[in-house]
## 1
Amino acid sequence: MSNVIVIGSQWGDEGKGKIVDWLSNKADAVVRFQGGHNAGHTLVVNGKIYKLSLLPSGIVRGKKSFIGNGVVLDLWALAKEIKEVSKQGININKELLSISETTCLILSYHRELDTAREHEIDGIKIGTTGRGIGPAYEDKVGRRAIRLCDIFDSKNLKKKVENALFHHNPIRKGLGIDEIKSTDILNQLNDIASFIKPYVSNIWKDLIKLQDEEKNILFEGAQGMMLDNDHGTYPFVTSSNTISAQASLGSGLGYIKKAYTLGITKAYLTRVGEGPFPSEQNNSVGEKLGLLGNEFGTVTGRKRRCGWLDLVLLKQSVDICGIQGIALTKLDVLDSFEKIKICVSYKINDKIFDYLPPIITSSDNFEKKYIELDGWNVSTRSCRNYNDLPKNAKKYVSLLKELTGIDISLLSTSPEREDTILFNDPFR
Ligand code: GDP
Ligand code: IMO
Ligand code: MG
């Protein structure tokens, strides 16, 4: 038996989708355990592009896919995604996809609240994806969420929707948005119920059975460690826990007996939305990284902020997630840089930090220490053999291993599935 937990070690968009698709070849099942359609995962298979937000990335290979209780689910977004993926020849049925009956739903009032708050001039702007993620998780912990199982419980659904609106309508009123009627929500849910019904099940039992049978389960994290609600750059984070520990809670398995944690790490760094970014390059270097790395958000199309790899944050992720191996992605984006930098420490008020102090909400006013390496000026794009890499690219990879103390398990050199070099198989 071996389970693999895939986690983004940075601020998301590290290339998790590509790596999960690649790894899922050996998996018996793939599980999403947090987040929602704020995630955007791009897979490229023989030139064909798949864009996934809610569906686990193993689905393209036809692997059994689960959406766990830790996810917040927009049923209309899922329906659209299923339709689009089906058009690309992936036949999604109840044998392939199962969704936990306790998954909390994102409803129209969550999306509207998310957007309205982001437009509040006086509030702290997070730069969310506007998908209603935060408000939906708030309702979950506030015990007023509508869960998937509720929509088939016609006797109690009305009362539950009214209970949620009892909370939401006064807020809407305060924000100048029209109040909402329970019948509107009930009608929306009624319209979509028959579409979703076949996929709904008690997935924790399925997962326990798979674990007992010693099958390979691949846990697919969304977002990244620095967006974690507890451990990230709060308040500029998402509303779920994104670290590896969440895989057991949010999948429904409760307890993962044994797992290898793989941290997906971009060879440089990006961030979408607001918040501190110590190694950000608000200059021609950042522009070039963005251009060569095609750094535009899959979900919102926003331009991603770009900078050098930050070892301080990477080590923090390694420690907090218990990362055992790194999948280094987008090495090819660095191909034409004369010099490549890695941020190794921060100096804040004359004190050197090897972690980002949680009180920091802007990284403008402190000193960052970098090491500088020579670039390689040769294309590594689509390289599939480590020995074919230029000397300085090899140096970059081995330095990363030395500085983090963590094995580089995989190396990715293009968006294409097979442009991947394996060093250590996470499914050992
Ligand atoms: P995720 O959210 O972590 O799954 O990452 P995204 O899919 O949002 O963003 C990563 C982007 O980089 C996607 O467009 C991928 O196709 C692309 N990508 C992944 N790996 C590589 C790589 O090694 N090189 C290059 N150039 N692009 C890559
Ligand atoms: P994947 O899985 C990058 C960011 C948003 C915003 C913050 C909060 O593709 O790596 P939210 O809508 O979650 O309340 O927004 O989190 N964010 C992501 N950034 N990749 C993601 O997912 C993200 N999901 C959320 O940009 O800064
Ligand atoms: Mg993404």
## 2
Amino acid sequence: MRRSLNLIFLGPPGAGKGTYAARMAEKHSIPQISTGSLMRSEISSGSSIGVELNSYISEGKLVPDDLTVKMLLKRLECDDCKKGYILDGFPRTLGQAETFEEKLKESGNPLSAVVVIEVDDQVLINRLADRRVCSGCGATFHLKNLPPKVEGKCDLCTAPLTKRKDDSPEVIKERLKVYHDLTEPLIDFYKKRGKVLFFDGDGKIDVIYNEICAIIDRLMSV
Ligand code: AP5
Ligand code: MG
């Protein structure tokens, strides 16, 4: 039986985690699991948990580990994760990484690799100002680098494109700070476990995606 492809995509806000994870998930027919997207869906549902989540996300702070891990583990129990998954934006703290490592040990289904996408802060600040997200299916576009075919409309489902609320300059600054303080240390955590693959995320989207695919294909063929 083919080994399952279990990936983590790690990187600062705007690095391209979602862009590459979505394409790779489609290529391998495995789900892209973005904790940010799960949380935004919960917020849209108007639930009391959604109200709590919004109080953190709107300020660029991390959602507490217990709540985040609970949501993630529930999603991983779904049948579509049996062949593998791409975690986009999880884990983000050492606490989340340690809890997840315990769960992986229990499942006997190890992590394949951690894809780290590196981009300078100033590039990210400029980049996120022009990101647009589909209000229907969540697909991501960029006004200059990945424009939709029809202005303001999603290529996939034609729903209107919107700006994410946490893509304001002040919140982006806070998200970058949180990344450097709490999430970047995970690179060392996974380096010690020999799992990290580094990619320069400042370049053409298609070129970077093909580089990631080539390395992952090689990894899965040995
Ligand atoms: P989340 O939704 O995960 O946001 P993020 O980590 O801040 O990352 P982004 O989604 O902003 O960026 P991305 O790397 O996916 O980039 P994208 O592909 O869109 O989390 C949001 C919030 O939820 C957090 O702040 C936190 O509050 C909470 N949260 C989520 N997970 C959590 C967790 N585990 N624990 C606690 N709290 C959690 O690309 C960005 C733009 O750039 C797009 O427009 C794209 O088209 C463009 N682009 C991509 N690549 C390139 C390129 N090479 N060149 C030019 N443009 C490019
Ligand atoms: Mg994303």
